[in-house]
């Protein structure tokens, strides 16, 4: 409750101060002809030459590229210069709005195109944002000419009327001079509103055409969310690796020592009473069972062999522990990122678990290969089929799809009734 109360107090203070500051006629006049009015006037005055230069350069390059397209050389030179000039004039216009009006127009996010000029050219030719900027530079001269004429005529009329009024007063025509003075004062009062109207129209056009569109903002937001999700997935995987190391180096070693001590006591202390020896034997068996369960938990968190030796060795361990024959083919010459390796391992692990529990299969085959920047996984079994992500019975395929989707991968399941079942996953390597 403290934050909202403070904000309310601050707003009330601002309202009271604003009302107090404008309590006198002189304060209202001072605000009317304050520095922002003169900055808006400079904005209008500088906008005309920039707009005319932009439309001249962009239009000239467009005409040259089209008219002399038969030379091939003209388009190859003219089109890159055209889109480069659009970028330059757009940046100049943004600086003008920021300098004189305090309006910050956010730049349009542009996808990376590397150093290839041809790729950058085709990217700009397909970009809607670039053509929106071209549209602004085409209509900007009309806004600038109309605004320049309106503002300059208004200020000139004010100065001319004031000068004539002074001259008429000097020659003795006081009545006519007074009328011209009133006219000059009226125009002087109206000019700031004219300037504000012209600049407001310019700002609306600039924000609509030079700034990012709704699609650009959504695309940037999606990219930000994708990066955030990748960071979360990577952090979760790193945390699993840390827990695995802590359990392996700490708890698991202590349990192993306890089981060994109990085993030695069971083997050597044979002269103890039978109830005591039974307790020691039971404790020994329980410690071995707990140690096995802990190893399974550690292996489920993040197997150490995956970090140390890679995907091939980790999947070989999965295939060896399966309760049915598994053929494994791994063709990955270069290791992928640790997060993607973990996802691939758990996809195969979950698929083998599902086969063991539900498929009633006699054998399975796992194929892992890397093609470019994608990692392809295929798990094939000769079971009864009928598997689907939305099926009941605890198949776990929905969780498998979520794992693949966490790294922007794709999952395909082909499991007709009667089998066979084919699970394919495509993962990005980075």
From TrEMBL:
<dbReference type="GO" id="GO:0005524">
    <property type="term" value="F:ATP binding"/>
</dbReference>
<feature type="transmembrane region" description="Helical">
    <location>
        <begin position="38"/>
        <end position="61"/>
    </location>
</feature>
<dbReference type="InterPro" id="IPR011712">
    <property type="entry name" value="Sig_transdc_His_kin_sub3_dim/P"/>
</dbReference>
<feature type="transmembrane region" description="Helical">
    <location>
        <begin position="134"/>
        <end position="162"/>
    </location>
</feature>
<keyword id="KW-0902">Two-component regulatory system</keyword>
<feature type="domain" description="Putative sensor">
    <location>
        <begin position="43"/>
        <end position="210"/>
    </location>
</feature>
<keyword id="KW-0812">Transmembrane</keyword>
<dbReference type="Pfam" id="PF02518">
    <property type="entry name" value="HATPase_c"/>
</dbReference>
<keyword id="KW-0808">Transferase</keyword>
<feature type="domain" description="Signal transduction histidine kinase subgroup 3 dimerisation and phosphoacceptor">
    <location>
        <begin position="239"/>
        <end position="306"/>
    </location>
</feature>
<dbReference type="InterPro" id="IPR025828">
    <property type="entry name" value="Put_sensor_dom"/>
</dbReference>
<keyword id="KW-0547">Nucleotide-binding</keyword>
<dbReference type="Pfam" id="PF13796">
    <property type="entry name" value="Sensor"/>
</dbReference>
<keyword id="KW-0472">Membrane</keyword>
<dbReference type="InterPro" id="IPR003594">
    <property type="entry name" value="HATPase_dom"/>
</dbReference>
<keyword id="KW-1133">Transmembrane helix</keyword>
<dbReference type="GO" id="GO:0046983">
    <property type="term" value="F:protein dimerization activity"/>
</dbReference>
<feature type="transmembrane region" description="Helical">
    <location>
        <begin position="67"/>
        <end position="89"/>
    </location>
</feature>
<dbReference type="GO" id="GO:0000155">
    <property type="term" value="F:phosphorelay sensor kinase activity"/>
</dbReference>
<keyword id="KW-0067">ATP-binding</keyword>
<keyword id="KW-0597">Phosphoprotein</keyword>
<dbReference type="GO" id="GO:0016020">
    <property type="term" value="C:membrane"/>
</dbReference>
<dbReference type="InterPro" id="IPR036890">
    <property type="entry name" value="HATPase_C_sf"/>
</dbReference>
<keyword id="KW-0418">Kinase</keyword>
<protein>
    <recommendedName>
        <fullName>histidine kinase</fullName>
        <ecNumber>2.7.13.3</ecNumber>
    </recommendedName>
</protein>
<dbReference type="Pfam" id="PF07730">
    <property type="entry name" value="HisKA_3"/>
</dbReference>
<dbReference type="InterPro" id="IPR050482">
    <property type="entry name" value="Sensor_HK_TwoCompSys"/>
</dbReference>
<feature type="transmembrane region" description="Helical">
    <location>
        <begin position="174"/>
        <end position="195"/>
    </location>
</feature>
<feature type="domain" description="Histidine kinase/HSP90-like ATPase">
    <location>
        <begin position="347"/>
        <end position="428"/>
    </location>
</feature>
